[in-house]
Amino acid sequence: MSAHDAAGGAAGAATPPAPGRALAAEVDLLAALAYGELTGFLHLAQDAAGAPTVPDRAALGALAVAEFEHYRLLRDGLQALGADPTAAMEPFAPAVDSYHERTAPSDWLEGLVKAYVGQGIATDFYREVAALVGAPTRELVHRVLADAGDADPIVDAVRQAIRDEPRVAGRLALWARRLVGEALSQAQRVAADREALSAVLVEGGEGAPGADLVELGRMFNRITEAHVRRMQRLGLTA
Asked: What does the pLDDT look like over 136-169, one tens digit per residue?
């Protein structure tokens, strides 16, 4: 029995979101993810241009291309739902842009950690929300999130930098902690600001129960645990 069931068992199952609100939640989910992928593409392309070696530029360039392809898939998904992609994405621009402004890397290595850690946090958050929406939208989100591109060059570059200069690990670990705090803050802001997304999180959808405060806490704990595993892969302490 979930925390939601335990808390609401006496009153019966939660009422699913109204059809119009359920559709709005799907549009919001795809739009938030689409804008994130579009801005991710732009930042990765910028990082690729400033990479120190040709292989580094090629590796980040490939990741940028993957991000833009994700954006195109999500844009098409929004159109299939009858939404105007540009109008749907606009409400999410302030939160996403604020995240990037507050986490501008100071050097190449910080940019790599941001690309790996920031994208990972976003992926985990959107995967959690996707579990509560309609099957076609859920499958599209899972398809996009499953094709994250090859992050091995980022991991290898960071681990090599730590081997070359072990003291850099402390600085990058602190930077990653800042990134995860900012990313989770913006994710919570997006969920709270959009009524349809809030409703699907709390009330559930597609036969899945919603989440009370306890379950929401568990959701963010799962996201944090996945972040710890990514940090370990980089050779950093979470």
From this structure: 999 999 999 887 667 888 899 999 999 999 999 9
For residue 129, CA distances in Å to 66, 125, 204, 227, 234 come to 22, 7, 10, 17, 26
Tokens of 199: 């409703």
Residue 200 three-state SS: helix
Q: What is the dihedral of CA 184, 190, 193, 195, to 10 degrees?
A: -120
Tens of pLDDT, residues 10-64: 334 444 445 577 889 899 999 999 999 999 999 989 888 888 889 888 888 988 9
Encoded tokens for 214: 């306890």
| Pair 63, 115: CB distance under 8 Å | yes
Buried b (16+ CB within 10 A) or exposed e, 29-51: bbbbbbbbbbbbbebbbebbeeb
30 contacts 137 by C-beta, under 8 angstroms: yes
Q: What pTM did the predictor assign?
A: 0.81
E strand or H helix that includes residue 204? strand 204-205
